[in-house]
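Researcher: Structure for this, please.
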Amino acid sequence: MSSSPLENSIVHTDCVAALEQLPPGCVDLVFADPPFNIGYDYDVYADALHPNQYLNWCQRWMAGVHRALKDDGTFWLAIGDEYAAELKVLAQREIGFRCRSWVVWYYTFGVNCRQKFTRSHAHLFYFVKNEKQFTFRGEELENRIPSARQLVYADKRANPQGRLPDDTWIISPADVAEPPPSDRPPAASTWVLRPQDLADRFTAQEDTWYFPRVAGTFKEREGFHGCQMPEQLLGRIIRMCSHPGEMVLDPFSGSATTLAVAKKLGRRYLGFDLSEQYVTRGLKRLESIAVGDPLDGSPEPTMSAPTTKAGRRVDETPSSPKVRSRKRTVSTKSQPLPGLNHEE
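Model: Predicted structure, token format:
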């Protein structure tokens, strides 16, 4: 695949046919955010198929993904409530994927509902072809976050390398073009380690009881595609499940966010899309960035947390000599997470 003329490009084509034409086992990581079949107004695709027709179509392109992936390859699927259960079953029982995690992405700025709980989440299925052989770079510091022992309790037992994120991913507003209203906190950071400490989360009217969508006022917004994923979300997936230089494929390129993040992180990439307009504008977006460029949105993880009754933050020092100082000793054998201020 390294010599393929399709590498580092977006192809104007139907993904089902294109996947069938790829050499078997040529892709390391696939991220797919397909149409949800909810009647969305795409420019060339009719997003209102009969349910059986939609599921049959999904089975065809997912089978193509399975064929294109290497034996140790990874497939991430983003999908809404309407077909999440059916597609998970199809992927596992009919196609042969193994599900490692069912991640819930909680977002802000969801569409308000008047007759039901406001939807505030999407499903991210993390599949592999071989449950014993896959890429998961969980030991790399760029994929880890500080633990509560580090941030809150200054516990000397804390692993200086932090921990892996949970399987519910939360994003607060980031890089908003205009200042947030007075009733909403500023966009200090994208990823929230302790959502229970944020007073405006887990509100009663939402269907997730606790990454906003890329809203129209966000600097990150490309403007030509209504279903744009946050770059930081794709960054977590691509960093975790692929190595630099490996091939990342998005069969529904759309706004080209997957490919843009792959390029910034030094991966090879390939995208397909039915829309000539999306292909043209996606290619223009890719031409405007370079390997090593920072991802849009505030980087993870949050490096601060509120105090608690049972402990103190790492950066706090006792004001009274009667209080025993909780100094942290950083082992010379392990590298701490960047951004944490350890006492010397």
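Researcher: Any notable elements?
Model: The two ends are 50 Å apart (CA to CA). The CA atoms of residues 92 and 98 lie 6 Å apart.
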